[in-house]
């Protein structure tokens, strides 16, 4: 998403060699309107494993799995304290728990992980199934839909708003805020999104702190650390980040899945033939996730050190795109090809280490239910003739528009 506000190019720091400077703007990548992940991979194949770009405040970019996996896990050198690019204004409160490093991160993360464990997610499965089926069966007679608005944003958002016990009808207000947060290309847009979300949440947080229920929002805003309840400000940041994740990420992955299957008949038929094969379906979902990574969270270099011949300085910012792990040909042969028989396909779509996405179990469950219920009812679908999917890069890559038709 572009706001039309151009970010000035940063001046190359003295410790950055000129031959490591690359014209890379992750909000505007050549070819991303056709295939975001392959557009990223073109930089992976054509430029140094780690390079520096003057765009978005000036930052390093790691393109290979070996380095990205280190940067995901090593918070002592690569901190999560600032995960957005361009940088947020000085003094902006941290996004909790994402922009906290261990050990403090673990205190905030624990209640969220407990709420999203397999047993807890299993209790949500029937609700996910019911929303999925109702939505598909309402669309079926029409023979067409705009998938993003009419399905991808309906299923996970309905499920998520039920989890936090917020009004379903508020989704139309919340979705544009989430969109601005994850794909806004300037700090002003993202700050406003955070303020808007905080303003929306304030009354609910006050209510749940006074009269907590058994919903996820009540759980996180009453988190206790060392015997003391977190502050209202911390609760607001925590709740806002959960809503941003819950309102956007799974919707994006559903859209990537649907676009791929609409344009790859053979793969679609393979899944249809194996909808009752749990092992096959699990493997197919992981392969589709590997091929369609989405998240781009930055890191902050904590101190001066050398890494593989590159000098990093304290305060340097670095982008290790999760999707490039799955697209690394040193790790996954022929990575642009989706192969449901692939053995050991490695990806980092949900992160690694202490900050691995706590919602990954629920996301996989929703993706599985989508494939089973959609393909058993609408097995033959394609992109509407004359239309073109609208893709967007940013902190979270996604599809903004996807017109589908079926007999």
UniProtKB/TrEMBL annotation:
Q: Which residues form the signal peptide?
A: none
GO terms, molecular function: heme binding; iron ion binding; monooxygenase activity; oxidoreductase activity, acting on paired donors, with incorporation or reduction of molecular oxygen
- A Pfam family recorded for this sequence: p450
Write out the entry's keywords from A to Z.
Heme, Iron, Metal-binding, Monooxygenase, Oxidoreductase
The answer to whether the entry has keyword Iron is yes
What SUPFAM superfamilies does its record include? Answer: Cytochrome P450
Keyword Hydrolase annotated: no
Q: Which family does it belong to?
A: Belongs to the cytochrome P450 family.
Query: PANTHER family in the record, alphabetically?
Result: P450, PUTATIVE (EUROFUNG)-RELATED
| Name of protein | Cytochrome P450
Organism name: Novosphingobium taihuense
